[in-house]
Amino acid sequence: MQSALDFISWQEVINHGKFLIFKTIPLLFAASTITFITSHLIEKIRISNFRSKRRGTAVITGGTSGIGLEFSKLFARDKIDLVLVSNDPKEEVELVRKSLVEKFGVKVICESCNLSKNEDRLATFDRILNQLEVKADYLVNNAGFGMVGELQKLEWNQVNDMIQVNSTAVVHVAHAFVNDAINRKSSLKMITTSSLAGVQPNPLFNVYASTKAFTRLFAMASHVELAKYNITSTALLPGATLTNFVKRSKYDTIGKYTSVAKLTPEEVAACGYYHMMNGHSVAVPGLIYKFLHFLMWISPSDIMMNLFYNQNKPSQ
Ligand SMILES: NC(=O)c1ccc[n+]([C@@H]2O[C@H](COP(=O)([O-])OP(=O)(O)OC[C@H]3O[C@@H](n4cnc5c(N)ncnc54)[C@H](OP(=O)(O)O)[C@@H]3O)[C@@H](O)[C@H]2O)c1
Predict the structure, then answer these.
(1) Residue located nearest, by CA, to atom 42 of ligand 1
(2) What is the distance between the alpha carbons of residues 157 and 164, in angstroms, rounded to a whole number?
């Protein structure tokens, strides 16, 4: 008895294979690119039209500059009162407070706190939660800074402060405000500003990227862990954004920062705000960075590490 294969020559099988490779794969690639771009455009429209109808109070760390300040403006626009925790000079903070109150008519409390210090954090939580009796409905765990360069050439005290602010303080802040929300049997929406730098090992931006990998995992696991308390947690993963961060991390001194695509703090905060309010676990702002995020997931670490090493190396 003859099988179906007997009627198909090997040449035909090879031709079919060629058809699959040269016709179907490019078609699939085109279809996924169109889907990718369309879903980004839909997200963009949703973000720009989004307004929160739920009022309440938002606590924002690093809420007086950069991405944090843009978060503050979005909450204030939607008539949500603010508690801003930062280390900025008093005069600057007062200017920000005044402009938010005048423009949006919300209540704004500013608390000065060096988040790298455990005692400072404890005193600030006590003041906000017990003395001012703030009941947070939203928490933006955003303060942080970076340092570029070889670990051995960085000052230990500064490296330690960076680990404290970017990682320890993030968990400490979440611990304090999540506990309070659970005790009050109240819901809470939380977002943590991590970074795309926390997706792959990042030579010469090593410790910073490692702190951001830590907060990315922390924010995402919290999303599942806290769901039963009606608490959501979103990891915000921005790429390069034009804020004080660039200067403070000394990234501008290596001469290459200007060559990469840059986001504005407004678009980063708007993306984070939308995904936080909708209780999503991850937010990646910007089409190019969404694509980079995808590439980072599928690329071997060895390749990515070499790319980052060259990117972070000072220009000759
Ligand atoms: N810009 C980027 O390219 C980029 C990319 C990915 C992720 N991020 C992350 O985005 C977050 C916000 O940064 P940004 O870009 O908006 O930069 P930014 O304008 O420098 O804002 C950082 C904020 O964190 C505060 N902060 C830093 N150290 C602090 C401390 N010890 N105690 C209290 N507050 C402290 C800063 O206050 P002081 O100025 O008073 O210290 C400032 O308000 C950071 O977590 C950063 O890692 C930034």
Answers:
(1) 62
(2) 10
